[in-house]
User: Fold Purine nucleoside phosphorylase from Pleuronectes platessa.
Amino acid sequence: MSESVSGDSYAECSATADWLMSNTQVRPTVGIVCGSGMGGLAKMLKDPQVFKYSDIPNFPRSTVHGHAGQLVFGTLKGKPCVCMQGRFHLYEGYPIQKITLPMRVFKLMGVETMILTNAAGGLNQDYKVGDVMILKDHINMPGFAGINPLSGPNDDRFGVRFPCMSDAYDRELRQLAHEVGGELGFNDFLKEGVYCVLGGPSFETIAECRMLHSLGADAVGMSTVHEVIVARHAGIRCFALSLISNRSVMDYDSLERANHEEVLETGRLRAEQLEKLVTTIVDRMEHHNNNNSF
Ligand code: HPA
Assistant:
């Protein structure tokens, strides 16, 4: 097998997809990424089959506390799913293409829809800890500096050179999430807004939070956007949720300090409701086959 510099070549992704498909009967149409403290989502899968990242060819390993580092196959409400229990981040030091490699592998396995979750800081002053924000759009801050998972030669077998991002977060799925959230009585804490990704791992300064807020971001975090870019490039429709685990500090008199334990704790508090929301969305969503890239 030829190894690319970036580690996400068609040959490498195909080898990984083939290895997985020869080790599981599940042919997932839905992919789920569990954010920090939200690994419990994977426990919703029936007849789970688990692969440690360290056993999967070409997969990086997850190094973050609160991320299990395994891929779980199974069914959710009868739909074949693959769930990443733990994801990869820029701040772990991986090349950006390694962070997004699972999206391409999932595409080759037949995934049509991605549901991504993350923990995020709330910049919007109306947001409270424990709110769940449906992503309407994103700001790819590392992208402004040329850090984009699609940098480098384009492989047309995955998608086009210049993919559109104005429809990154599927309108129908967002609508469905609002409907389901309303039925479940979640309206009080369900929001919709713009997510801004930064490289991390240091949390934002007060001046940075003020700047991001004034630029139109409602929440800030260190993940998801890279995966969405690569998934959209490959024609996978995307839906993403941020669990607001802390309020971003915007005021020099505040004594609040962002910390990772708070992030995990908020995940535990909302875990069950998030699981219910995601499960019901998966149950109700229509089959989607947007094969625009092959
Ligand atoms: N900033 C960046 N990432 C985060 C935060 C935050 O405040 N909370 C959870 N992830």
Notes: The chain is about 30% helix and 25% strand. The chain has one domain: 3-287. Residues 135 and 193 are 5 Å apart (CA to CA). The mean pLDDT is 93.
